Amino acid sequence: MAGKHKSTDGQQQQLTVALRIRPIFANEANRGPGVVARAVAGKIVIFQNPQARNTADVLRAKRSHEKRFVFDWAFDGKTTQEEVYIKTTKQLVDNVMKGYNATVFAYGATGAGKTHTMVGTDQDPGIMVRALSDLFKEVRNNSDATSYEVKMSYLEVYNENIRDLLNSHSGQLDLREDSQGNHQVIGLSEVSVSNEYEVMKILTKGNKNRTQEATGANQTSSRSHAMLQVHVKQSDRLRNTVQKVRTGTLYMVDLAGSERASHTRNTGQRFKEGAHINMSLLALGNCINALAVRGVKYVNFRDSKLTRLLKEPLSGNCQTVMIAHISPAAIHFDESRNTLLYADRAKNITNKVSNEKKMSDEDMKKLRDDIIVSFNRQMEVRKKVMEIDNKLLELTTEFGKLAITLNDWETEKAKLDSEKDKETSDGEEEEEPQHVRQAWDDIEFVISEQHRYLSLREETEKEYDSCCEKTYKLAETLPQKTNSEEQKELLDILMRVHELEIEKMEMQADQILREHELRQRDILLARFDKQRQLCDEIITKQRAMIDSMDNGDDKNMKPSRELLELYQIYSREFDGRESVINQLNNNDHRTNSLWKARPPGTTDSMLSVKNVERRPRRNSLQLPPISR
Ligand SMILES: Nc1ncnc2c1ncn2[C@@H]1O[C@H](COP(=O)(O)OP(=O)(O)OP(=O)(O)O)[C@@H](O)[C@H]1O
Predict the structure, then answer these.
(1) ipTM
(2) Cα of 114 to ligand 1 centre, how many Å?
(3) Sign of dihedral through CA atoms 603, 606, 610, 611?
């Protein structure tokens, strides 16, 4: 089997080119110098110029008049129909069943064996029948899990007119280009088929309708290009699974003879046909030449109906096999050489093959719905995270307030204890008032709530991450799944709108956090303020104590010179600070703007609830001792 056909999705694939040399007929062998084309080693064609045989120097003649062509496959007169089918087309059938498109077309001069390869006879059928027979075998083998719909259409292009071979009354049919750049034949009948016997009947009927005429070159020459299209649509039968619908099309084309019109010695109508056939084959040749040159952006498929119909097979999402045909007879040297050169050129054509690219309106709607559902879920979960954050921030604020109440109480208790010491010296601890006991209970509750919300946040954040991943995976499939710019643009806009929604939500969350930070700073500042007042009080009292000692008898308790200097600096700082605070209190606006700057030394962890731990109940406020 040709390894070249085993398609990996989205990969560049070269056109597979096979060359078939039919057996020489007795009348051909009698008429000239015999055989000029031989297939060697299954891949090489040795082609000789018959005139070389007249040269005396046999070796020199051989070198200059013998040409070798290498193809994917080279078949000779002994190769069976089955072998040709297995090597060129069998894998295409497998790929069509996987949802790819595939084309096999027969090219060559009149009488070179195209129809024999494509259609064959009842006793020895050709590719069309064998491919359909294999396709139905696959359908039967997989019918438990998959439901299939196989439809066929068969048309011919004759004198640049398209006719339906399955409906002889259809007349000429129009070819239209859809929004995705594919060509469709309007009004072409599609027949549902379920087994190979029906296919055989339909093909025989179609071939009878085909324009055939005896010419000087062939007894039953096909004067038209015939195209058989087999569409396979499949969907999973299994319940509770996502319905996956795949469609693949197999195009099988039997082209009209490619020889020059003059060779058939035709005049009048026959000549006109020849001219048309050659015009479309010339257009096909031009397309093949253009496609074979790497980097060519524009290929003109518009010149003929045939090239318009073959646009997708040759340039688009399709695996394509060309089977070129030649006669081995010396009398057909010119046509055979032309065919060999065409086929050689066609080897360079590459197609990009994918079974994902084509997207029906139904699939498009599903993808759009999936994206919306995924985004909405993402927004919902993000909202939940925001609500949790909000709750955590409220708890942090609450914690801050309660901490102030407790600190206030510790300060007050220290004062009360020292006053009591003076009076009674019994060392009994001050009883906590009701609001302080309540504050301890509340702070305990706040801490347990913080832990609860933190673990909830962790879970919800994980859920949010998986939602984001799902949405972006869907978004990533877009370029592969759509082939229309319009579809892509629409889905891009949809994605952008939702991204903006998410961004808006993030900004709201940011705003809430900022407001909370401001509140936290207020609380922190209030705590600093209390601490400062306490320090002031301590320093002032110590100063008074030292002053009183200074006046007393104990000269050893005199403060050092250094300490006295520090007191002076402190009182200057104190006066300056008081005047700034007075100024700020008179001007609310400026006070607010001052809060906007983070107080020096305030770190994120100071604002975070995670790091706040319950203070030990009986631990009074610790101040650094002033060392003398
Ligand atoms: N490989 C082959 N083995 C045996 N007979 C062949 C083979 N190829 C072609 N023939 C015979 O040669 C004759 C011409 O072949 P065929 O009609 O297939 O040519 P064609 O290329 O389709 O010609 P046209 O373009 O005129 O339709 C037929 O009688 C056919 O049976």
Answers:
(1) 0.98
(2) 6
(3) positive
